[in-house]
Amino acid sequence: MLVAAVVHAAWNAVTDSIDDELAGLTLAGAGRVACGLVVVAAAAPPDPASWP
Q1: CA 16: distance to chain centroid?
Q2: pLDDT, tens only, 20-47
Q3: Which of 1, 14, 20, 33 gets the most CB atoms within 10 Å of its CB?
Q4: C-alpha 10, offset from chain centre
């Protein structure tokens, strides 16, 4: 929970500090994509027995 709160506060600070709203949201989206790619690369695939 603490990490989520820190990330949320940092995201708000970055998007509020940029005057161009589109650029701020684009930057935030790129950050989410980068974090998602790291998680996907680090996570193990699910066990085939758990697939429907």
Answers
A1: 17
A2: 888 888 888 898 899 899 999 999 988 9
A3: 14
A4: 12
